[in-house]
Amino acid sequence: MGPSFTSRTARALAAAVTTGALVALAGCGGGGEAGGGGGTITIGYSGPLSGGAAAYGTNIQDGMQMAVDALNEQGVTVEGGEYTVELAALDDMYQPNTAATNAQRLAEQDDAAVIFVPHSGGIQAAQELNSGRSSFLLGAYSSDPAILATGNPLSMMIPPSFKSYGQPFIEQVKTDGVEKLGLLGTASEYGHSWTGLVTEEWEAQGGEVLTDNSIDYSTVTDFAGPVSQTLSEDPDVIFLGGPSQPTALIIEEARNQGYEGSFLIMDQAKFEEMELFTDPENLNDSVGVMPVKEYEDPGTADLVAAYEELVDGERPATVEVSLHYQSVALVVKAMEVAGTVEDPEAIRGALGDAMGEVDDRFRVSGFPTTITDAGHLQNEDLQIAYRNDDGDYEFIAIENAED
Amino acid sequence: MTLFIQQLFNGLALGGVYCLAAIGLTLVFGVLRIPNLAHGSLYMLGAYMTYFFLTAIGVPYIAAIGMAAIVLAIVGVLLERVVFHPLRNSPHTHHMIAAVGAMFFFQALAQVIWGADFRRMDSPFSESVSIAGAQISWQRIIIIVTAVIVLSLLAWFIKRSIHGQTIEAVEQDRTGASLAGISPNTVSMLTFALAAALATIAAGLVAPINLLSPTMGAALDLKIFAIIILGGLGSIPGAIAGGFLLAMAEVMTSTYVSSAVGEAIAFVVLVLVLAIRPTGLFAKAVQR
Question: Would you kindly state where each structural domain of chain A is located, as residue ranges?
Fold first, then answer.
């Protein structure tokens, strides 16, 4: 019968659309070829390549891919053998469990000796299996010090710990007569840790902390409400920050509603990205992390220019891009120094020695000068940025917090 | 007092957006009995289409919203024809699975076309006006005014125009309506077109005060489901009242209790309604 036939075809079509959607989703994961055979070094990466945090995950992937391309162009030689570096990327949609599964797969199927994961939940999940049946060095990109507290011997913490920022941030804005701190951070787990840190530190320095108005930046439709509410208590300083773009919007809303005080911006938000989303003048009198382009490392300018070309000037290179760029180069150099592309323990052991030997082009944003026993890559000249009333950045040297 | 006025306007603007988005969802439910989980994705696509017309083609803001609404009306019709129409005789779970599939499909599509990063759409109305000491941006006033105009036009369309009346007829009695010569197919398509267009207007209005991203519809989905359950599934007055009530509850609880409670209020309301009055405020006979 005609109708039943068309209905069946149409149903098949609907099924195809649905399947297509799922495939499209799964397809975002991409993936590299299996390595293993003599001349290939596979660097693994599990990050959010689709879903709400996809922009973050794909930026990181870009940074890593740029390093891989640059390394291949230079040539990589380990123990006399020529190697080609490959990036194998899998999508975890920011899910810890998926990140762990991906890491296992990258280690076993793609023979990746080093795997990067850029979120604290995924890192902690991967730490449970990186020194068991599978063994791999974990490139951990999260400024949450909890990832070192596990005492995992095969982790490498890439960014500075956020604990380093609390005290100097507050010292920068808490001048005479500045008393009240408004809280408008993001309601993620990481945001809560930060809110706790600044609350404690602000009170320790004798200030008053107002109501906690933390909101989930990704689900709030209109920021005007929470902003009005924070301003109603008349704060001198507002702590806020989440992804740069909504952070910029909240800052703009606060300025539009007449707020003239300072902002204390957590490290997830970046000045260079916020400048593109709001009139940069709104950001004056704020303290935050240093923009990549302001670093004076030998490779900074080239990376910033190359990244801009890669993305057609649509967005600036942030530390997510630059820190992964230099970290990939560092681990590959460590393989050269250790004389192995397979043994994660030897590679981890060689990181310290490899630091001095990495080519200048890979030194882009506070290239690490030391690695702590716990596995934290640190640069001794850590700095934060203060954007003053004239819109100029001032840089303040700070100490690395103890692990 | 200033704070109250400030939050009152914020709540009204938010309510306008919520009810424009929720009406489409409730219409689709009323006519087709489908909980369209992909509604938030239509809202998201609507925002991106407005952005496209505004920045790539350069049409003025209001016209861009109008053009995007037309494009999305077509997408809505296609969604009904390609996905839901073939499933009309299948069990209800199939509709839900298909809707989830469509949602993922639209999200992936937006990511492929526009990328995963946030986009900002500038409003031509960036100034604000001072009302009794509160700073209200023109954009929010425009949201409120547009919502009122669109809602009035919609009420006129459903109650007075022949096409609108067919929607109401099918909602009330599908079999009876088809016996009277109303084509359920046409009405289904019309409903989806209208729902997608309304979601687009909501999205186009809210885009300048928020950000565009492929997942922007997901957060809204939960809220508007809470709204239509609060108002009564399938009821248009229910969606309007529910939209404003929920927005006000959200804004005022955040202001006078705490933001954490404010964010949870939609779901507290949802649980209360389901426990005390499962049919919603404006009970509409939900068959089955």
Answer: 40-160+297-381, 163-266
